[in-house]
Every structure is written in C-alpha cells, then in structure tokens.
Amino acid sequence: MANPFLGVFLHALGGLAAASFYIPYKSVKQWSWESYWLAGGFFSWIIAPWILAWLTAPAVVQILAEAPKSTLGWSYFFGILWGIGGLTFGLSMRYLGMSLGYALALGFCAAFGTIIPPLFQGRILELAGTRSGLVTLAGVAVCLLGIAFCGVAGIRKEQELPARDKQATIQEFDLIKGIWVALFAGVMSACMAFGIAAGKPIAGRAVELGTPPLWQNTPVFVIILAGGFTTNFIWCVVLNVRNRSWGDYWNAAGSPVLMNYLLSALAGTTWYLQFMFYGMGTTKMGQYDFSSWTIHMAFIIIFSNIWGWLFHEWKGVSPRTHTWVWTGIGILLVSTLVVGWGNYLALE
Fold first, then answer.
1. 315: left (phi > 0), else alpha (psi -120 to 50), else beta?
2. Which domain holds residue 223?
3. In the chain, how many domains are there?
4. Residue 314 backbone phi and psi in degrees, to 5
C-alpha cells in the first residue's frame, strides 16, 4: 500500500547511508584507492545484495531463473553503466571532497535519473495533466533548484579558500579534474534508476512468489549490482597492476590489513544500505515512483553537506557562501515535502 510520506522517510535513511559510506575509507591506512574501493565493493555489490535477497525473498533463485532474459540483460547492462558512474563518483570524492563532490555529481545524476524515465515512458504530458502530477513535477523542479544552490556554494568555497587550506582537508584536491569526473559520474550514475525500471518484471515476479512488496526490489539489486561489480572489478585490477598495489590485499607494505578490511567492509555495507532503503522507499511512493530518484539525491546532498561541515570542509569560507549552502539544503528539504504531497494527492 502506498504511503508517500513513509517513502520520503525511507529515502532519508538511504540518503544518510549514501552520504556516510565514504567516512570509513578516510581511516584506511597505507592502501591505494583502488585497493580499498574494491575491497569495499565486494560487500557493496556482491555480499550484501545476496544476503538481503536471501533474507527477504526466499525464492530469489527461482525469481531470477524465471525472469525474462531481456529483463536480466537490460538490468545487468544498466548496472555496468551505473558501475562506471559509481567508480568515477568515488574519484569525485577524492578530488573535490564530500560537499562539492556530492553536490556536483548528484546534481547531474538527479536531473538525468528523474526526468529521462517518464520521458522514455511517454508520461510527461500525462503527469502535466493532473494536479498531483503537476505538484510532483514542481517538487522535482524545486529539488533541482536546491541542488543548484548547493553547487554554487561549493564552487564559491573553492574560489575563496587558498590552495593550502583545501589540501589540508582534501589531500588530492583538483578542481578541474574533479568537475569533469563529477559530470561524467552524475550522468552514468543515473543508470541505476533505469536499471530499476528495467527490472520491474523481476520485482513483480518476486511479489507473486511471496516476497513482501516492501522488499520486492532486492532481487533486482542482485542483478544491477553484479553489473556494477563487473565494471569496478576490472578497473580496480587494472589500477592494481599499473600502480603495483596488489600487495595491499595481503599486507605487503606492512599496513594494518585486518583493520583496513573491516573499514572497507563497513564502508561497502553502508553503501549498499542506501539501495536497500531506496528500494523500500520506491514501493511506497505510489504511481509517481519516478520521483524517488530526486528525493534520494536530495537527501544525499543534505547529509553530505552536513558531514562536509563537520569535517571542516567549509571552514574559512565567507558568511555569504554559508548562506548559499544552507539555503540550498532548506530548499531541498522543502522539495521532499512537495514531492511527497504530490504523490499523496495521487492516492485520493
């Protein structure tokens, strides 16, 4: 049964998980980026999805075995494309920090991931012809406005802070490289929304075989994230060979290997939790579930900017820049309420 405001709350939990996953990586010692990214990825894309699918959809093997090959193929394909986005998204954190990296990458991700599915389905005119649809689309527009405010704040921050201060909080800071990476990451990461849409037959079959509707997307994530794992595995292994960092995995450099694995596992599991809550949230948003992507992106940006503030990434910027970022966060919060209201009106 649809419950848009519960859906918004679940998306908030997913946004918190997504905004928090990178924090454990900050404590990994003496490992190259590709090593801890891949170690965490095993938990993000393989272990956690299968464990949750087994717990919530007991017939998961049957569900996937009976799914049309085209459905599996498209879900996996979009997972591969999303994996490219996820890979470069991690690089955007590396070059821009949490606040600016999230704002820029997710701004593009929200725009493409929200608007393209209803355009592809030919539903834009249908939505514009109803009160609930107009309110929902207005909420999406408000969200994009909030994202723009946060992006402007991030850019102002980079202009105001001297290089040594930016390097103090972001060791590999590179604005130009980071912007291009964030642009590419945002566009490709939107493929997660397409993968979920392509996997709807899998979700439908899961419900038919007894999976609670709230958990119907867990088998879909097994396929999508397998595609994401494929991309990330190949690239990280290439970097391990190129950078001669393969010894990280067995303590060749004298690193605290057990702690590094535990931190990577924590980061990877937290990364997956965003999709668990996202999948739950979409089931509660009613007929306008395409708006879930916007809400999810909004909450990620809200929480990532809070984390960025707590990690002193905004230290030293002008009061006006602080006004920009907090205004953007306020607009994003309003947008989630507007989208939730639009979905609620659709139930009347």
1. beta
2. 4-345
3. 1
4. -100, 5
Alpha helices in 121-256 (DSSP H): 124-128, 131-160, 163-169, 175-189, 191-198, 200-208, 218-243
Residue 248 identity: D
Long-range contacts of 67-71 (CB under 8 A, 24+ apart): 67/201, 67/202, 67/205, 68/201, 71/198, 71/199, 71/201, 71/202
Would you give the distance in Å from CA 330 to the centre of its chain? 20
Residue 212 to residue 53: CA distance in whole angstroms: 12
Q: Give CA 21 to chain center in angstroms.
A: 10
List pLDDT tens digits, range 1-56: 678 778 888 989 998 998 888 889 989 988 998 999 999 999 999 999 999 999 99
The token duo for 302 is 């809200």
String of DSSP letters for 47-107 = IHHHHHHHHH-TTHHHHHHHS-HHHHHHHHHHHHHHHHHHHHHHHHHHHH-HHHHHHHHHH
Q: What is the pTM of this model?
A: 0.73
> Phi and psi dihedrals of 55, rounded to 5?
-75, -30
Residues in the chain: 348
How big is the CA angle at 144 (ends 142 and 148), to the nearest 5 degrees?
A: 115
Distance between CA atoms of residues 236 and 39, nearest Å: 10
Q: Which candidate, 53, 57, 25, 60, places its Cα nearest to that of 39?
A: 25
Inter-residue contact 253 to 30 (CB < 8 Å) = yes
Centre a 10 Å sphere on the Cβ of residue 117 and count the other Cβ atoms it contains.
18
